[in-house]
Amino acid sequence: MKAKAIIFDKDGTLFPYNLWKNPIRKFFSSELPLSKLSPSKKEACIDEFSSVVGIKKDGTLNSNGLFLKRSYFSSFFSLVFITLKYHLNPFKSAKGFLKIKNRCRYGYKEELKKYDFSRLQKLLLEYKRNGSNLAVFTNDTKESLDIFLSVFGRGFFSFSIDNTSLHTKPDPRAIKDYSIFSGIETKDMMIVSDSVKDLKMAKKAGVGTIVALEGTTETKELKKWADYVFPDIITALSFFIS
Q1: Under a CB-based contact definition with an 8 Å cutoff, are residues 123 and 234 in contact?
Q2: Structural contact between residues 159 and 186, judged by C-beta atoms closer than 8 angstroms
Q3: Long-range Cβ contact pairs of 142-148 (< 8 A, separation 24 or more)
Q4: What is the CA radius of gyration of the chain?
């Protein structure tokens, strides 16, 4: 099976979520009003805020975290509870937390540089040599995507979607925009993602091959929307290229 175009979700697909651990902790340390807390309470507070967002202290995922589930209602009450628990100024805390879209400024590039992308890059180059057009989709900021591409390599992808694009995930029109740009019909495309919302978007857009990655959602749920389910992106790409 050869897809003429492949769409990759950035977060959790092209790189593991735990690369956000240190940037998120640095962000909270800088932006939240924690100066009156003792060092131990400050660390504990950052641990709890990070877990609500989706990254635990050890770098593993909180599967119910805000970034993964987009559970804004329950996350709001969890954030309020932590703010009150540590007697933080609620207005300063809210103002600081709302800057979380800028978390990429707190060591994200440095964390990316530590990670070995070589196997993934080699596979993507092979797909490009075989004539596949590649795109990267994210709901993150343009700044975050630019930082990622500056480390990973801009030449791999001919098209990208971020939170400033005309149509954003999970709007099927984002895929239609890529189809118009590339001249490739959606039935000849493949999408690779760990997000059920992305898989549903692809189904609505008429994407020919839908590939899910395990890690953030139960496999049985992924199977409802995907043609294939793999444990990771290396396994998935290796399967199709063979």
Answers
A1: yes
A2: no
A3: 143/102, 143/104, 143/105, 144/103, 144/104, 144/108, 145/10, 147/104, 147/108, 147/109, 147/112, 148/10, 148/14, 148/15, 148/112
A4: 19
Q: How many CB atoms lie within 10 A of CB 32?
A: 25
Strand partners, 191: 7, 210
pTM as predicted? 0.92
- Which stretches does DSSP call E strand in 49-171? 133-137, 159-161
Q: Is the peptide bond before 231 cis (omega within 30 degrees of 0)?
A: no
Count CB-CB contacts under 10 A for residue 2: 12
Closest by CA position to 187, among listed 128, 130, 227: 227
Instruction: Report the alpha-carbon distance of residue 77 to residue 69 in Å, rounded.
Output: 15
Q: Residue 173 corresponds to which amino acid?
A: R
Please tell me the distance from the alpha carbon of residue 132 to that of residue 96, in angstroms, as a whole number. 42
**What's the CA gap between 170 and 181, in Å, rounded?**
18
The beta strands (E) that lie in the chain are given as: 5-9, 133-137, 159-161, 189-193, 209-213, 228-230
Phi-psi region of 88 (alpha: psi -120 to 50; beta: other; left: phi over 0): beta
Burial of 196-233, coded b for 16+ CB within 10 Å and e otherwise, reads bebbebbbebebbbbbbbebbbeeeebeebbbbbbeeb
Question: pLDDT of 65-116, one tens digit each?
Answer: 887 777 777 788 999 999 999 999 999 999 999 999 999 999 999 999 999 9
CA geometry: angle at 212 spanning 206 and 214, to 5°? 165
Q: How far apart are CA 166 and CA 114, in angstroms?
A: 33
